[in-house]
Amino acid sequence: MLENTDKPVSKSLRIGDHAPVFRARTTQGDISLDQYQGRWLVFFSHPADFTPVCTSEFIAFAHAAESFNKLNCALLGLSVDSLYSHIAWVRAIHEAFGTTIPFPVVEDPSMVVAQAYGMIDSTSQDSSAVRATYVIDPEGIIRAISWYPMNVGRSVAEILRVLAALQQTAANEALTPEGWQPGDEFLAPPAQAALAADSPPTWFCQTRNVT
Q1: pTM here?
Q2: Which domains does the chain show, CATH number per domain?
Q3: Arithmetic mean of pLDDT, 132-150
């Protein structure tokens, strides 16, 4: 159940918002979102269990789980299906593909969590639009959001890349350029580059090292 349910529920969360705290049953027992504070969290939803795109995503997340863990990031899935459906699906994935799903999957049959996160409209009676990803920092603040339609699978590699970029720039005044990968150069904020004594003509797009 959600905490502070007497307050208006946001239909559209934004980057910089506090992630709504909830308690729920999962395939690995009861959890509360605030138990992840102190770690990064990738919280992602899927339309339904036993669907092809979602199955491929879960397998990819499972294979990348150790990479997320090395970045001090936990994974948490959700759909509006019941806990029993989740458990059956996780077992089916293991039996069919030999892949163990190491992260918990939240049940949300009442769609309360999905609606609180804006994954579906509060007046919706089904979960047809639910495929969202939220990257939440150790303080419980949403740092990135992505949305995909039902027929397009997400890129787990891209989620990892975004997570690494967020962590690398969190404590430094630097930016990541297009397609940035860990180990690549960063960009200096324009104001810093413009104030440099030897500012070149390309001051508005200058690389910099971050130590």
Answers
A1: 0.88
A2: 23-154 (3.40.30.10), 172-211 (no CATH)
A3: 95
